[in-house]
Design brief:
Helix content is 58%, strand content 12%. The protein is of the alpha/beta class. The strands form 2 sheets. The chain has a 7-stranded mixed beta sheet.
């Protein structure tokens, strides 16, 4: 009965934690953003989008020139000085490419709200206004264009900024970042810029995330946390993106060593560069969330003085950052990663010293449990790998050049079913290994797996280390009284131990798993299944262990 109660408690607490954690993926409402003329309005931004994304408008096309003229006129009507920067395509890439595409020039739109201070700490907002040939580009990058246009309108309702604000809508991003490459020639602008904000999209829905920054970003991300009301940002995404062969305009601009943020939404991948990327399929909540980044950040930076910019620029540490829930972003220095790892290793030494001394576990049983667990993870991986391959055949789908696979609509129901199946497998393997090699031995082997992952990520992939290190430290601290067999570590304390594992592991790792699915599609299912098992194994093992402790 005690085991059943603990297990039900773990399941209910896990679901509650998941609900709280995933609140970070909720966009702010219209009421939360404000509804006055001085506030960012997603409704107005959507009206601009209807003009920008009427039809496909690739670089050099007549439709592209219509979009260009619409944006230029918009800024003129706001009484914002605006110009067009033209550069021959052959000077950006080569003459052969210009001949093949039939496009003579790339044309960037540069608008400017002058600052009153006369200093060089300007703010640069960028997005690209061209689309691919196949799609109207409502999200890619209509969302970014509409966000910048509405931000400019809202800023014009305010007193003149201290620092100059540049709005640059680039051309030719899709065929090769041509606009961004050409814009770097404008040293008269770039030399004055201190911070850049780039807005992109890789789908037509979902919350935008801060997925890339300039280097030494600790103070940069801390300022983002303090300024933005609904922050969603992951250091693991930033570190992963740096290792992937992907590009945005920010890729070209960040070589200038300016401070910078790169934002994008990633849900709705089926609309990416597809004919359905139309206004009628757009998500106003996503645009609203973009606005909740752009408007507050610009308002903050446009009034900062030189000393404040210098403090951000002189930061010599990268940041570890992740959301816990809606409105809550945790940020700390990367320099803390190794000390946390050392604390974890110290706790590990203490736990295992007393575990063997008090005969809580046996060396042979522990070792066999650990290798049996690794074997079960391999089995789960192979099963899911083959399952995905089978499903691609059944649904006449295919794995593309980026190892991604789509089964029609990008539906999170598929992810849910995959995770639930992995949980079932985990229960089965936990019961088998515990029965064969001992409950305590298996429980401690699951802890070791997390410790190993924490050490590996701390040394090689610091941006994601928090997801393994923090749960492992909390779990070991709570398990220690059980290992020491202290009299008070019973009854209600057992629920504390279970909660100490369920809450941090799900709170920190589940959003990463979801973002991996969003970014890489269901093709990542084998990895997600393993991560599900890595979360589930310790929960079930600890419940079984505590039950055995009560019976002893």
């Amino acid at each position: 009965m005690k085991k059943r109660k603990l297990l039900i408690f773990a399941i209910l607490l896990g679901l509650l934690t998941l609900f709280i954690s995933f609140s970070q993926f909720l966009s702010p409402s219209t009421e939360e953003m404000g509804e006055t003329e001085k506030d960012f309005s997603s409704e107005r931004a959507l009206d601009y989008l209807k003009e920008v994304a009427k039809e496909p408008h690739p670089m050099g096309s007549p439709a592209n020139k219509k979009v260009r003229d619409y944006i230029v006129k918009y800024f003129q009507n706001l009484d914002v000085p605006v110009e067009i920067q033209s550069k021959p395509v052959k000077d950006v890439k080569d003459e052969k490419y210009a001949e093949e595409t039939g496009t003579a020039t790339v044309e960037n739109i540069i608008a400017k709200i002058p600052g009153t201070s006369g200093n060089d700490n300007a703010i640069l907002l960028t997005a690209h206004y061209d689309s691919v040939t196949e799609a109207p580009g409502a999200s890619d990058d209509g969302y970014g264009v509409a966000t910048i246009m509405e931000t400019a309108r809202a800023l014009k309702q305010m007193p003149a900024p201290k620092n100059t604000i540049y709005f640059v809508l680039t051309d030719g991003e899709e065929p090769g970042l041509f606009g961004a490459r050409a814009f770097k020639d404008r040293t008269d602008v770039m030399n004055k810029v201190s911070v850049m904000l780039n807005f992109e999209a890789r789908g037509n829905t979902g919350v935008p995330i801060l997925f890339e920054t300039s280097s030494n970003d600790l103070k940069l991300v801390q300022l983002y946390k303090e300024t933005v009301p609904y922050p969603v940002a992951y250091s693991f995404a930033s570190e992963m993106y740096k290792r992937m062969p992907n590009d945005t305009d920010f890729t070209e601009l960040k070589v200038t060593k300016k401070l910078g943020y790169n934002f994008a939404n990633m849900n709705g991948l089926e609309a990416y560069h597809a004919e359905i990327d139309r206004v009628e399929n757009s998500d106003e909540g996503t645009i609203r969330h973009f606005g909740s980044y752009a408007f507050p950040l610009v308002k903050k930076y446009m009034m900062m003085d030189a000393k404040e910019f210098q403090a951000v620029e002189e930061s010599k540490s990268n940041a570890i950052y992740f959301p816990l829930m809606k409105k809550t972003l945790i940020v700390y220095s990367e320099k803390v990663v190794i000390p946390l790892m050392i604390v974890l290793l110290g706790l590990t030494a203490v736990i295992f010293f007393f575990s063997f001394k008090k005969q809580v576990i046996q060396i042979k049983g522990f070792a066999l449990s650990f290798f049996a667990m690794i074997g079960s993870l391999v089995a789960i991986f192979i099963f899911y790998f083959l399952l995905i391959r089978l499903l691609t055949i059944v649904f006449y789908s295919e794995i593309n050049e980026y190892s991604m696979v789509m089964f029609g609509t990008y539906d999170s129901t598929i992810l849910t079913l995959m995770v639930l199946l992995a949980v079932v497998f985990s229960f089965f393997f936990t019961k088998w290994i515990s029965k064969k090699y001992g409950t305590m031995n298996f429980a401690m082997s699951t802890q070791v797996l997390w410790i190993v992952l924490a050490v590996i990520t701390s040394l090689t992939f610091k941006g994601v280390s928090y997801a393994f290190t923090i749960p492992a430290i909390i779990s070991l601290l709570l398990v220690l009284p059980i290992v020491l067999k202290l009299n008070w570590a019973k009854a209600v304390y057992h629920y504390v131990v279970v909660a100490g594992w369920v809450v941090p592991s799900i709170l920190l790792l589940a959003p990463i798993m979801y973002q991996m699915y969003v970014a890489l599609t269901i093709s990542i299912a084998p990895i997600l299944a393993i991560l599900t098992a890595i979360i589930t194994f310790p929960i079930v093992a600890i419940v079984n262990w505590l039950k055995a402790e009560d019976e002893a």
